[in-house]
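Reproducibility note. Readers wishing to regenerate the assembly model reported in the main text can use the exact inputs given here. Chain order matters: entities are listed in the order in which they were concatenated for prediction.
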Amino acid sequence: MVHLTINNKEVSVPKGTTILEAAKSAGIKIPSICYLPGVHVAGTCRICSVEVVGAKALMASCKTEAKDDMVVYTNTPKVQKARKMLYQLLLSDHSKDCLACNRNQTCELQKMGEELGVDETIFDTNSARQQIDSSPSITRDLSKCILCRRCETACSKIQKVGVLRPQNRGFDTVLAPPMDIPIADADCVYCGQCTVVCPVGALKETDSIATVWDAINDPSKRVVMQVAPAVRVALGEVFGMPAGTRVTGKLAAAMRALGADDIFDTNWAADLTIMEEGTEFLERATRAVQGKKAVLPMITSCSPGWIKYVEHYYPDVTTNLSTCKSPHMMLGAVAKSYYAQKLGIDPKNIFVVSVMPCTAKKFEVTREELENDGNRNVDAVLTTRELGRMIKQAGLDFETLEDEAFDEPLGMSTGAADIFGLTGGVMEAALRTVYAILTGNPLPFENLHVTPIVGLDQVKEATIKLENVLPEYKDFEGMEVRVAVTSGLDGAKQLVEQIKHGKSPYHFIEIMGCPGGCITGGGQPRSEDPKVREKRQAALYTEDEQKTLRMSHENPSIIAFYEEFLGKPGGKLSHDLLHTHYVKRGDWDAVFIDIEQNRKKKTAKSAKAGAANGVQGDTLSQRMNDLDNMQAISLEEENKKLRDEISEIKETVSIYKQVLADYKKGS
Amino acid sequence: MNEAILNTLCEDEKDEKQLEQIANVIDHYKKDPGSLIQILHLSQEICGYLPLKVQKFIAHTMEIPLADVSGVVSFYSFFATRPRGQHIIRVCMGTACYVRGGKKLVEKLEELLGIQLGDTTDDGKFSFEVARCIGACGLAPAIMIDSTVYKQVNPNRLEDILSQY
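Running the prediction on these inputs yields the following structure tokens for the assembly.
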């Protein structure tokens, strides 16, 4: 433990704690903008500066480690003055269109100004960055960026994708994709985690609100609205409710009040997904146990951020993906076929809006392969945050809305569908059904929760042994089904690398693109509650547990749907409507891969042939040697300097020793 | 990656040989991320400049994000992302040269070459850049063409100097 004093208060914290965290533990708040708990990398904003007695200058408390006997003051006149100036400097580079910004009143920079008591701007805005860069999912407004680099931390450190990094220098610095190319041309997967951490209006979802209002106000359109499971445990936060408040009934009521014609539940399609995905898994596994060729592990395909990631960075692994569309796309496809037939209207006049915790879904709906008969399965995606804004625009008093239910025929769901919104949920839902189909018994876990894959760890795994299987599935008797679950693209990378190298021990893998799953997706409300993940997770498990039916294949609405329309899971009509294929995007031109492979072959051949590389090759190796030599020389010099210093110190010490000895003799 | 963007960023087709050489350089440094700057220097020597395609090749071979590579390339003024001319003119804009009329030299050169600062002449003969102090403050204002330093240059001498190339 380390003991220090902050504002005359004695504080003890574990070694390695920063001053900012130490102060927080003692109930002292130090203002900061760029700070991100747990993953903080760059101390760029300096707003958290504090006075440390004995230090030459003010110290950034987010990057300064607390040390024994430190005396810290967090709120002296000197600190206050410095913070105000730092704030003014941040403002000097920030557009001041606050009234016309969608972060108005939720902007952390705006709030900071109020907290610091800033009541004038002393520098004119003179930002070098003006452009707005829009993609189907994410919009960057660089005039608002304050270079805090939180997005870089989310992109490079949490997700390990590394698309947003500082480019250029000085006033021209931008947090941008390589060479400042538009984000739609970069290998961005649109997970949207950057939009969650951005303190200002610089990174946000691309607006769909206007399109949705137009559709609602168009009398020729029948607007079908559906909502994902994770939205119902987060939307309340937009209206000041605590994290994890369940607002399912109010949500349905709000969507109806906004003017949608049908209020359907993506949960219904989640149950449908389990039927299709479970069947697909059984088909693949059957081939495997019969010794035929099968692509395993199978990986879930509900998370469009994850899908785009694998298409860019591991194109060859796309064959491991389940061919199932994500649940909301399935619902869209069903609404524009089965439901349109039922209503007797042209699918072209149905406008499907999905309310999702996700920014990547906005891109997903624009994919050509997700169309049937030339109609997009889904026409627009609203994030949870956007739905919140629409409810405010419509003047609805969300908290007092009477609970309503979803509409039939695409509204009923089991508990298995609710947990689609959290890490481990899709796998658990699939196992509940697959195990019950194979053995006729429920999963042998308390409350049906597959405990090893519950929780927020990065990579989780479980083994389920199949015993007493029904006679028609006798091939599976005694099989140990190995499954893995991860959320966030860093974990995904670890599991996919195993597959790439043929070393994956699993049969079935669930991957969600955002850490924690959809509950903390890129389109969810920004939360200051450090326990937000746990709270939303608990809320979704409660939604699940309070339902009587908790296994997808028991959903009577789904059973009826197969009988009436689809036939059997995995059948021809299912494949037309509910399954898709993937694009091998790659992050690389095929040309260059060829070059590299050729090179490897050639270097293997020419290893003996020696350096026949010509003049240019010689000078190049010469230059390489030169640079190496330079490094060696500078290291040598550094060493020499250090050696000199040591000998000097030794000399000084011996002199002191001599002096002490003389002194002792004298006394 | 959008092919159109690549084409606009890469005005020249890089031939296989150059990329092979870059791959050898990276092998030499064993993909150590700390050697990125050296690798970029040598790659620029090989290709003359570092277009996005070359940066992508380096990022791919080193197994690091492209944005890391381009972040370094765009940070240091020594790295060029567009093809450069046969000769590089650098006008010193360090403090001493600036106060002794460096800016006038820039204006005059823009007029003589018919290009803006940072561009390359159509015939590919000259690239025109500024330098932040070349360590010849006593000889201000100074310009450098390739590795030759011209001291106490006044705008009227420029035409004469350029004619030597």
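We highlight two features of this model. The longest strand of chain A covers residues 480-487. The longest helix of chain A spans residues 614-666.
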